[in-house]
């Protein structure tokens, strides 16, 4: 299993996921602006990975500005935080990670050099925590899976969406480690095809059986009895709904209509239970992501506009359970446990 | 508006739809085997157009065999009918069209030369009938649309799916002819992208406002209030469900969840009310249609299999109304009117 992001020799090393599944290439970045670009261009993507990338981006910024006087340093860091925050407006991990780093920056009484050391350390801790959280999600989620199950997933909430091990794919990995036979069916996940490219790549890489379908197929496959469980990741859980990659809501509707359990793997860092779904701005991305598949094949006539929302909203009534690092909860239990 | 298929100088002239939206090229075929290939390869597609193509294919076969003695002629025609029937197993219009032509062949007492003339004539009549049927569907369906409506459609059930004018798009065309402002949102319709390529092409060609979305987006757009009605075509209507391009079922689920009317435009030639959905074999197509977008860009790693069912099943409880050339009917009314 490959880590999607690492801190190596004061650089951020990440897999360039836009090249997968054809080419496994790593980016080594030493400028936070490049990290921000990599988040925006989705060289790295997936809520938890984005969080760690944001933290490591800020760590790079501290290295760049550590020799400035503290006031100037703070000014520059504020700038860097804004650049990073503006990359993916729906990803709550981004804000969570920036806030966490910012707490160190703003409360630390010491000089920028010292702050920088602490921030670098914190970003590495966050990466390790992510792996630990995912292993716990795997442990709890694996109990939901039976030997022989076929699990449908949408987008990529696997190892490549996290630092390692994955969220939605963690229960699959853990169940297989426990000796169960599990098969995955991956929605291709248009427009950017993270399911076809990334989920298929990482599962094949780790020798876990996987098949790919068009996003149009999940409903029929459920009707034909070919899917036992659905597990997806999430970018943000509000008090009433799950925000995840566009198309998740349709999968959830099909699961309900066919009596199939629909689970969301959600590290508590994605919980944003103080807000409701009405409060969330859904990111709209370039029309060309739809009209030109992977930037290569034009599928829509010139002059025809495409709408490209990145996320959709799955209301709690369609969610069977939410798997956090602490256990599996119904939406009601989740609110009881985590809502302040 | 372009006719998708015509009988010209004892040849079958059709738009090669696999090249759209980039290139508008016509095929001129004088061998029924090439017509069968064109149906199978989806150079021509869409239930009504397939029916007319099948009839015209048989007409070409009669021209080829018309000088044989009657017994030999019938043998060769049986062969041709089998080749044509085997191209798209879920398309009921195919069988309907072959049966209709076969009635002439088998009941006609005259010589093959005479039969051939009658079959050619019949295939031309069927093309004209298709246009008439579509205009009637348009007239009835237009009454369902209000000035300012945005209509979502899946796949292409437009002019290009018929001889001309379309089924699902006929109400849109008719409403616009009546002076209403109507906008279309087209699902791209993976894997073969008939929505992005064909629906967008033909509507833009006829100056009807259209936007394209990924198949993953319809649910969110409905939730955001951006869609007023759904109209899709169908390949076959059984006593309990609508068979249409894979993905239709998901759209229907989203429409119900958001209280949006879901209509199916169904020429009576697509009605197959004596059978139930369990009787229907769903065509499975090549894995490469999913793994390689339009045969050009590989999106799935080598060695990962893709499942590729061509149609799905939308149960009657999700269908608001079925628009035939005779009027708009609820599923119950449809059964009452048409089921023998």
The coarse overall form of chain A would be globular
| Widest sheet: strand ordering of chain A | 6-5-4-7-10-15-16
Give a count of the beta strands of chain A, DSSP E runs of length 2 or more: 16
Total number of helices of chain A: 11
Give the low-pLDDT segments of chain A: none
In whole angstroms, the N-to-C terminal distance of chain A is 36 Å
Q: Largest interface, counted with CB-CB under 8 A?
A: A-B, 55 and 55 residues
Task: Specify the oligomeric state.
Answer: homodimer
The secondary structure category of chain A is alpha/beta
Calculate the mean pLDDT score of chain A and round it.
Answer: 96
Helix content of chain A: 40-55%
Order of helices and strands of chain A: EEEHHHHHEHEHEHEEEHEHEEEEEEH
Helix-strand layout with pairing:
The structure is a homodimer of 340-residue chains.
Chain A: E1 5-8, E2 11-15, E3 26-29, H1 32-40, H2 47-65, H3 70-85, H4 92-107, H5 112-142, E4 150-153, H6 170-177, E5 183-187, H7 194-205, E6 210-213, H8 218-223, E7 229-232, E8 236-237, E9 241-245, H9 248-257, E10 262-265, H10 288-291, E11 292-293, E12 297-298, E13 305-307, E14 311-315, E15 321-324, E16 327-329, H11 331-338
Parallel strand pairs in A: 4-5, 4-7, 5-6, 7-10, 10-15
Antiparallel strand pairs in A: 1-2, 2-3, 8-9, 9-14, 11-12, 15-16
Describe this structure in words.
The structure is a homodimer of 340-residue chains. With 340 residues, chain A is α/β, with parallel strands linked by helices. Chain A is 41% helix and 18% strand. Chain A contains 11 helices and 16 strands. Chain A has helices at 32-40, 47-65, 70-85, 92-107, 112-142, 170-177, 194-205, 218-223, 248-257, 288-291, 331-338; strands spanning 5-8, 11-15, 26-29, 150-153, 183-187, 210-213, 229-232, 236-237, 241-245, 262-265, 292-293, 297-298, 305-307, 311-315, 321-324, 327-329. Chain A has a 7-stranded mixed beta sheet. The first copy, chain A, has a 3-stranded antiparallel beta sheet with strand order 1-2-3. In chain A, strands 8-9-14 form a 3-stranded antiparallel beta sheet, covered by helices on one side. The two termini of chain A are 36 Å apart. The mean pLDDT of chain A is 96. Chains A and B meet through α7, β6, α8, α9 and β12 of A and α7, β6, α8, α9 and β12 of B.
